[in-house]
Amino acid sequence: MATQKTTGSSAQTIADDDLPPSQPTRPESIYHAPAAAGSTPSFTSTTSAANAKLKDFDVAEGDERGISHTDSRYSHMNRPLLLFAITAAISSINYGWIIGSINIPALVIEECAGGPQTWTHGFPSCIPMSSTLWGLVVGLTPLGAWAGSLLSGVAADRFGRKRMLMYNNASFVIGALLAGTATTIAQLAVARFVSGIGCGVAANVVSTYCSETSTVRSRGFLGGFQQLMILVGLFLSQVVSIGLSKAPLWRALFAVSAAIAIGQTLLLFFIPESPKFLVTMGRYEEAHAVLQRLRKGLDISLEYEDLVAVLESSHQDTTRAPKPSMWQVVSGNTEVDLRHLVFSALFLMLAQQWSGAKGVMFYSTEILTDRFHLTDEQAKQIPTIAQLLTLGIGGIGAVAVIIGMNILDKVGRRSVLVVSSLATSICAALIVVGSALDIGPMVATAMYVFNLVFQAGAGFIPYLCASELLPYYALGSISGLATSVNCLTLFVVSFIFPILDKALKAYLFVPFIATNLITFLFGVFMMPEAKGKSITEVVEEYQGPVRIVAGPFVRRKASASPATFTAPKVAD
Over the stretch 402-427, which tens digit does the pLDDT of each residue have? Predict the structure, then answer.
């Protein structure tokens, strides 16, 4: 058999016998020759019942290379994998820092709560503006994230996940410098938009990297890393904000983002590229070495064979026909109809932002200042009770994600989403009741529980949905689209939240009672369950138009046979 070897822009066909013995090649045992035109390639895949048996593997003595015969596909978290995921997720910490750092010093910047505007060394102590204009400035971060997310999927497929994170740090540095030196509303607005571009790229690429390096058993845990690190960054920014909210120290608060970006860029040189990306680039030997580094001490032979076979099956499909466009995937005009899975990925990213949780993160200080009836003089006594309560809201969110990450692979995605969204809706109702009755402590307590139950499920599940539900050939374009939907919704919510606050007052959270109930109903009847399943199995079970797929009146599909089967355009 001949192997296609690509170097730069040239391609060369060489015999497998000519390759060095140590170089990994396409696994012959599971990869079949390309099918004839008009048909689809097939490959032997140990899925469904066969996979269920493999999950209960035995550990034997190591071979001559010192690698145990433990099947790496079903291994748990290990130290290298955790460290690499943390390094990639520093971009998410920066994301959290950017969206959180604007909260506590808001009144000092927009309303000059620290005193009349003064100028020192060419910089004003505050930048006064109306609440509507402030909402626009705050909302420009998610609008920038929307712009960044639109291009992030395609760019990450071209440059790789690791390099894309490196390039993206330039957005964080430029945005931080602009915000730290802002003298006008326009400059602060541009700074927030540029930083938002970095947030949008990070939101897409970090979750993709974590998913592509994880094992089946660690996928749920690593999938929550995106949201966990965002909340860690948000919490840290609020802790530091307590000491840097006064003029002109709030400028240093914004500039910290640049230091985080520079530090991560240096650390990224020490982590590997995604093995899936390396295989798609034809870099088999490097992919094999990276996979072994990620699964230290384990036998990766079967995992490597599955990875190469499924990705090359997808590659053979796109060789015979052009790679489907985003519109073809969304409209179901592909050989495998992905409409329900695409809808689920997009809906979850939409639902995450219409929950009202980001409104709590952005505006909790102002909301609690109003609910506790703090006077102008009390608002100047930093830290105020509203600021301290905001700090706790950020901290409890990070704890909640850790809890959710540890139960997700035990309970399942659908069950966690259902409980989380229903509890979030109930808490939104309690916030309304506390506000209507003018009971400040009740509002604060309900906001704490709101953030706890939301972040434990509905807050982080959307970040792993695209990479768990979609085949590789659709992942880049649809994950970028899903992230853009997420960011655009966040922009709308961020912009209208202060307007709704003034219009609805005590009933601010009434719309979010309804939106979270809609998410609850989606979880009960339409949410695909990916717990313990490969993407091939997920696509096989949920392919087709948008429909009800769960609930008491839905008949479950029988498990796929473990024998050889045809998997058109499905990439693990």
Answer: 888 888 888 889 999 999 999 999 99
Q: What is the pLDDT of residue 535?
A: 83
- What length is written for the chain? 572
Mode of pairing for the β-strands spanning 2-7 and 119-120 = unpaired
The Cα–Cα gap between 241 and 101 comes to 7
Show the tokens assigned to 449. 């529980």
Enter the tokens of residue 14: 């060489």
Tell me which long-range contacts 385-391 makes (C-beta under 8 A, separation of at least 24).
Answer: 387/104, 387/241, 387/242, 387/245, 388/242, 389/364, 389/444, 389/447, 390/103, 390/104, 390/238, 390/364, 390/365, 391/104, 391/235, 391/238, 391/239, 391/242
Q: Which of 496, 566, 534 is nearest to 216 (CA)?
A: 534
3-class secondary structure per residue, 308-333:
HHHHHHHHHHHHHCCCCCHHHHHHCC
CB-based contact 501:134 (threshold 8 Å)? no
Global pTM reads 0.73
Query: Which pLDDT value is given to residue 7?
Result: 40
DSSP one-letter string for 530-565:
-TT--HHHHHHHH-SSS----STTPPPPPPPPSS-E
Which pair of tokens denotes residue 96?
Answer: 């959290």
DSSP type of residue 384: P
Rounded Cα–Cα distance for residues 448 and 452 (Å)? 6
